[in-house]
Design a protein that fits this description.
The structure is a homodimer of 625-residue chains.
Chain A: E1 17-18, E2 24-26, H1 29-52, H2 57-64, H3 77-95, H4 98-112, H5 142-158, H6 164-180, H7 194-205, H8 208-220, H9 252-269, H10 272-288, H11 320-337, H12 342-354, E3 372-373, H13 402-412, E4 419-421, E5 425-428, E6 434-440, E7 443-451, E8 458-466, E9 470-476, E10 484-485, E11 488-489, E12 493-500, E13 505-509, E14 515-519, E15 529-534, E16 537-542, E17 555-557, E18 564-566, E19 569-578, E20 586-587, E21 594-605, E22 617-618, E23 621-622
């Protein structure tokens, strides 16, 4: 194994180096609370549910040879067990939790018992009484499952463990290289994931075969290898080669996982052209196909991107996993290009998609993250798994339950996103109370970041130790016009402070006044509306906060009104809109709405919505015409 | 058999009596052209495709006992053969076409050979090597298929024929009453249709059992008999009893077919309460869940209604069959209540949904009828059946091909919608060049309607014969403010002219100047936009008509501009909008768009769009802020 820090992503090149979760500790605050919630609730909850719904038992039955006709869950159920193991592995790395470590080994033994001598591993295919292996590339998800197995193994390797999961994953990866390598079977999986996993396994083991296999999969896709389906081959990015594409399209999570892999492959292969292609695709997606929350995916039907500027708030899909996928891509691009603005993308998705998914109690999750809820959602049954995108309040589990474990692995490994290092500098990418140990030009640097961010804009970075002078780069968020460093105004982008040494203290003030935001005029679905942001938070109106039992459909913001801070959110002056009851909703006068008394509209951080019972909610609020 | 005119719908009660397709002849014009297209193209095209894709061969194989494992098409493929036979039957009634008559008998013989001794009939279930009969009520569509079989038989009965289809349908209906009657199996079909068919068969045969069976199905549904599914039981209206519902919901076509049946049952049973429930549900749906085109269904995912005012133009589903279903409901309500305003609903759906589906050449169909096309659709392969809602130009056939034959049966029987009769009056419901023979208080009345409508607003009705004086009622469309009768202004609604006798001439002038229309302020997705209508037509902008290669995303209507007539559509003053290219589409200034030179925006009737190659298109055009 190649030595590395506790790193989810460890590129062999690129402009910035990541810092491991053993070197960056989040010390409470917004993300510290979520890491604690993850340890206390999300991970045990996920293990309990994967046991309850039989996805772990699948491995026992497969090992016994009795799985035929009795497989539980969807084709890709194995992957969620692997993703949970990955979450546990980072959590063991973060905390040293020995019980979790033992649980990983217990699960690893169950999994290892299923694996064939040749490395094939799946509980849904290829066992007695089941369809044959590799008979359903479009929907079978066998390679996708290997991908998550491999990512779990990488987490074990990077946190200093070996054991069953690592053995099994390497054996599976070797099997994949033999079966799907150059000159072997010319197939790709309907769901990209193996690519990003193999690239990281190559980094973790130093074995270039895995990287090459990832590249083969990337370049093989896009030539109509998978069957045409109702959604079109764009659904699984098999409609055109990645290198010829200009924007992400089709199933959002599939597109994002593939794009993340492309960055990894580009960096490891030194393929600057491929890196630029991936960057342009992602930038175009951010500019034209992303919701204000950072959410991606406009279509419920196929969990897919719409076309440019097709971003309906009430049918926004914004799958939690797509938010995580966008963090994966943005993080890799940030490391590769050194452009800290990708930290803006990460911040937006983390605060407004990833943080929105789990309930405050940690016992339910949003799969889809709508920007507009027109009718109050009913609470989900705490004992029943829902279909993937059921229109309820957060559900305890899903039949397609990719999101909960994806949140868990992201939370467990979150601290790596806080800072990076380069040859002569440390970069602060996300603001949170944290201790940071990095290395600049071979010299250790220790920093402490003290902040109440995102509720307080002051960030104090203290240099606890620096053997040699180093520079500090701070990401000034794009929204933070008016930020000051030691009282001096700094522009959004990257702010560099040179020659820091031990005991130096940096004071950054980020402006947290609420901001009125308007949409691009091409986003037809929210024409004539405004939104309010505050710091990294997108805010929303919940009906529970409106006076007199008003619904979110009955309000508008006064023209010229400016938001003011209120609690953790904001307030803005608005009025009630009365709609005429008419038998037909179109006509010369149909749009006339009559306002009456004015009042303050309360807005709260979007991520916190639907924690106070059934409500209606909207992010984009109509503005007085 | 009970004697009746050539009537698709022949209620035993209600305020108005329908007039048969043998008594109303459409004499050219907009709908005459479409009836001719139906005879020349749509019906032969459908027969050719049902042969090509094997749906007719299914009957041959089922009769031979070799269908197991070889069934072609979806579970409900039989129904489209039946719907085609219904279209042919009305066409035979309309024209006396002997070749079509022979074709019906040929198909009838194939079908009869499949029917079991007990009346069961299906090529997809219950045959050797297939799943057992009635093992899949949610998705099996067996009762749905009987429904369309029965409607085909009703068309044969009503046009004076007997033969195989009639024998088979009655045997199937008897089977259904035995199998699913009171005290028998307590099931309902996942797709309503049998109800409306049984009610009409009861009318056509005088056998009250069929009506009672329809009532049993109506009242049995809504109690969670069908399995819960991802879309919820509302998808197939099994979430709450029809009599407790207040608005249509779930799958649009399912909801509309069920509502049509409810009106029929209410009328035949004298159940005024049920009639009122159906009326209120439909009225609420028109007021809050219907697109300006009369289209219904906001969700691609489940072909379903959204919640109130959730009407996104770019994701409008507006299935052609839902447009036909809304005509079915509105027609039954018009007959039952005598309220001619339901003729407005019918007119809107006919001109803007049903007429929009087939291409001008009669060789392709829209399944979904979007109000906003953001990227040019590619032409469909003329030799390949597409999935149901593929985002292309009109397709020659679909894997789910309910729409083409639904259009065909509607066109063939269209003339019945033109006029009705009551005890003392004839009602003109739709304007078209036509001859009308009706009976008022036992006395024959013959009228000729001469008009160039919808392209010319003058309608001249001549009384060719009236044995006794009678009254004439005219539907003045809701949009027709300023209409005049003999030079005198008449109000939208019903205009009654009393005491007409032979040789009287009535001259109605409907104003066909283009009208600017705005949406209800609760329809968030089209806030800040306007549409233009002209006569019964909703207009749209196609990119092919814009100057300088502009796209429909780059225009706005000038504030205060009024549309003027242009060709069969309109023109309205607008300007180009330049959008700033920005890396992130939200911000304090993101909505600022810069206009330049003004020009006329050309609008054409929506139904005609996409007949001139790939274009972008929009009905709702942004208005200068």
């Amino acid at each position: 194994m190649v030595s590395a820090s506790f790193l989810p992503v460890a590129p062999g090149g690129g402009r910035l180096q990541p810092v491991g979760i053993d070197q960056i500790r989040i010390l409470g605050g917004f993300w510290g609370d979520r890491q604690q919630l993850n340890a206390d609730k999300l991970i045990p909850h996920s293990l309990r549910w994967e046991t309850k719904v039989g996805w772990i038992e699948n491995f026992v039955r497969a090992a016994e040879g009795t799985i035929g006709g009795r497989h539980q869950g969807r084709e890709f159920a194995d992957s969620d067990v692997y993703k949970l193991i990955e979450a546990m592995a980072w959590e063991v790395g973060r905390t040293g939790d020995e019980d979790l470590d033992a649980e990983i080994e217990r699960l690893g033994a169950l999994i290892e018992a299923v694996q064939g001598d040749d490395g094939y591993l799946n509980t849904r295919f290829g066992n007695p009484g089941q369809e044959p292996r590799y008979s359903a590339f479009a929907w079978g998800h066998e390679l996708y499952c290997y991908g998550h197995l491999i990512q779990a193994a990488v987490a074990r390797i990077r946190t200093g463990h070996e054991g069953a999961i690592v053995r099994v994953a390497i054996k599976a990866a070797d099997h994949v290289c033999r079966e799907f390598g150059k000159g072997a079977r010319e197939d790709v999986c309907g769901h990209p994931e193996i690519e990003v996993a193999l690239a990281e396994l190559s980094r973790a083991t130093g074995d270039a075969r895995y990287l090459e296999q990832a590249r083969i999969f990337l370049d093989r896709r896009g030539h109509g290898i998978l069957p045409d389906i109702e959604f079109g081959r764009s659904y699984y990015q098999d409609d055109e080669p990645f290198r010829e594409s200009t924007v992400l399209r089709g199933h959002s999570v599939r597109a994002l996982y593939l794009c993340a892999a492309a960055v990894d492959i580009a960096v490891e292969k030194g393929d600057a052209e491929l890196l630029e292609i991936a960057r342009l695709q992602f930038d175009a997606t951010i500019a034209r196909r992303t919701y204000i929350t950072g959410g991606m995916g406009s279509h419920h039907q196929d969990e897919a991107f719409g076309v440019d500027f097709e971003l309906p708030p009430d049918r926004s899909y914004c799958e939690t996993c797509a938010g995580i996928g966008s963090v994966m891509v943005a993080w890799r691009l940030l490391l590769a290009t050194g452009d800290l603005r990708y930290g803006d993308v990460i911040e937006r998705a983390l605060y407004n998609i990833v943080a929105a998914s789990p309930s405050e109690a940690g016992d339910g999750f949003f799969y889809a993250n709508t920007l507009h809820r027109r009718t109050p959602a009913m609470p989900a049954d705490p004992d029943e798994a829902l279909p993937r995108a059921n229109a309820s309040l957060r559900a305890p589990w899903f039949e397609v339950s990719c999101c909960p474990t994806n949140v868990a692995r992201t939370f467990a490994s979150l601290s790596t996103l806080v800072a990076t290092a380069s040859d002569d500098a440390v970069q602060i990418v996300q603001y949170a109370p944290a201790s940071i140990e990095a290395e600049v030009a071979g010299s250790p640097v220790r920093l402490t970041m003290a902040t109440g961010y995102p509720y307080d804009g002051r960030v104090v970075v203290t240099v606890d130790e620096a053997e040699a002078p180093f520079d500090l780069e701070l990401r000034i968020p794009g929204w933070a016009a008016g930020a000051t460093l030691g009282g001096e105004t700094v522009e959004p982008g990257t702010c560099r402070i040179e020659g820091l040494t031990t005991d130096d203290v940096i004071e950054l003030d980020l402006p947290l006044a609420p901001r009125l935001v308007r949409p691009d005029s091409r986003i037809d679905a929210v024409r004539g509306t405004v939104a309010v942001e505050r710091g990294p938070f997108v805010l929303c109106v919940e009906s529970v906060d409106l006076p007199g039992g008003l619904d979110v459909a009955e309000i508008e913001v006064l023209r010229g009104a400016e938001p003011t801070a209120s609690g953790r959110g904001a307030a803005i002056r608005g009025r009630r809109v009365r709609h005429a009851a008419a038998p037909w909703p179109y006509g010369p006068d149909a749009a006339v709405a009559e306002g009456d008394a004015e009042f303050d509209i309360t807005l709260v951080p979007y991520h916190s919505w639907a924690n106070r019972g059934p409500v209606t909610m909207r992010v984009w609020v109509p503005e007085q015409a």
